[in-house]
Input
Amino acid sequence: MKKAILLSLLSFAALAGRADEGMWMLTDLKEQNAAAMYELGLDIGIDKVYCPDNISLKDAVVHFGGGCTGEIISSEGLVLTNHHCGYGHIQQHSSVEHDYLTDGFWAMTRKEELPCKGLSVTFIDKILDITPYVKEQLAIDEDPEGLNYLSPAYLKKVADRFAKKENIEITPFTALELKPFYGANRYYLFVKTVYKDIRMVGAPPSSIGKFGADTDNWMWPRHCGDFSMFRIYAAPDGKPAEYNENNVPFKVKKHLTINLGGVKDGDFTFVMGFPGRNWRYMISDEVEERMLTTNFMRKTVRTVRLDNLLEEMLKSDKVRIQYASKYASSANYWKNAIGMNEGLVRLNVLDTKKKQQEKLLAYGRETGTDTYRKAFDTIREIVGKRHDAVYHQQAIYEACQLGTEFYKIPSTDALLKALKENNKEALDSAKTKLKEGFDRFFNKDYNPEVDRKVSKALLKTYAELIPAEQRISIFAVIDKQFKGNIDAFVDACFDTSIFRSPEAFASFLNKPTAKAIEKDLMVQYAQSVKKGYNATDEAMKAETDAYNLAHKTWVEGMMKMKQHEGTPIYPDANSTLRLTYGKVGPYSPKDGVEYNYYTTLKGVMEKEDPNNYEFVVPAKLKELYNNKDFGRYAMKNGEMPICFVTGTDNTGGNSGSPVFNGKGELIGTGFDRNYEGLTGDIAFNPQLQRAACVDIRYTLFIIDKYAGAKHLVDEMTIVE
Output
């Protein structure tokens, strides 16, 4: 008996100390995952999690802004997501006079909730596996190049046909999304409803929401309250509508119950969200390519960009607010690239991939087919051929397209054509569109002097990375007209271009000439960057088409092998709704180091550094800590929890995802991964993979005790 108990405890400890791989399709849960979830601790019926015919937890999980996840936490459309997901909208509403990034924002009445231009919240109404229908359409439609199976434009047409055939109701706020899965071996259609009147309700100051900033990003332990809140508004009849001051809070059909019981080691959790991209079916050659191209460029180029941006941001509050969102966005995957490359080497992921691919090749031999061997050889050959083009394309993308903002000036092609044809009607139309484009480019968050400085540094970095004979064509202009002096070229762009200022642009638009456009250095630069990027695309086109076909075959082999083994399968992440599950637990990244599974407010005070903007602690938070004024949100031992880690499988796009306990109650919000788990986008490591989550008790503590916005807590459904 004692031996049996000991074995049971050891088995439980092993489960608690490892993560569970899989970004599962909700449509497959009942068949593939329900038994495992029940065994691990799911305490509600699987139909309560997802049911195609009835309301379930799925109906309270939303796609927030297209790049994050959110959850509905009140019957009146209150949405909880991450601070970094709402960051761009917090920044848009901020100014030197109303610095919500620094001070936080809390709407004390509905009238104070701020409309967020361009923000949407999307509900998933239906998830349909329509693979047979898509294959039927592919077989009868003309497809001269054989590429329709991956074409978004083609798949959109198929989705529209299917919706018409099945009498799916389509409104101006309905979105149909048909995507390929498993390398285009399956197709799922998502029928969605999009709400476009979204208003900002609350956000803590960055000293709470981004505590630790870049230093702590992707790290554990974490001590940040990474959350923000928004509200969905609808027309008085409850239907989606564009922004209107007469719209009302949306009466949702499902909102989550919040549990204040907290988490303990070994607790079962599950997460629903919209993970962005991962590449679990890569072969080892592709992993090495990723390390030497995408990740290398992100680290190298963004280091230069971020250093220059930060220098200017620290000089001026205006610049800090203008570039806060741009800096944060760039820094996020800069550190991700660094950590991923380190982890891929440290964990010998290339060897792991080689073992995985050899297993499939052996399966092919056992089943008497050389299909997988041919696909494998094709992928390896293509990766070798395209290396230089991928490397150059990533350099152009990072340095010129993302880094130099003046690349984004509006196109002058239509205006130039109208001028040369002397077509007055076309000229008037082109001038109007160009003015609209200029206003989007030269917006309140654009600072030409910052762009001037950053562009000089990035073009020099590009020139160091790419040999002279391979560089984009604008470098011929730099060499000929400016004797190779990049600084002089950039200065000339910002001193002479028609896009250098609103005044210069207005003067040009008053009397536009073809000569002014053709001579303009910013125009020449933008055209050169676009042409250079397209050239690398064209250089890889044949390889890309062949790769996609080989990859489809390779993934099909993986599916068949796993089905033969009786192993559940899941497709790579592609920004569609998924579920992951695992247990709360500590982890040990290396010998002698053990990380606990939760953090407390004590850790914030230990990290405080008033001379470092990343670790400033608000005075009121210190006062609450010193007085132990935590209300009902404290742990049983009296401490104030902040974050915890759990062994769920996640990636970018999962930010803001609800973390559920076994009863389907909200206990936290996912916001990050641990540094040691960054390799998970390519190869999952069950011992090291952890999702970092804000404890819901800390979220409510900040809203209630710190912000004094108890009215928001009062509209939530909470159990102790």
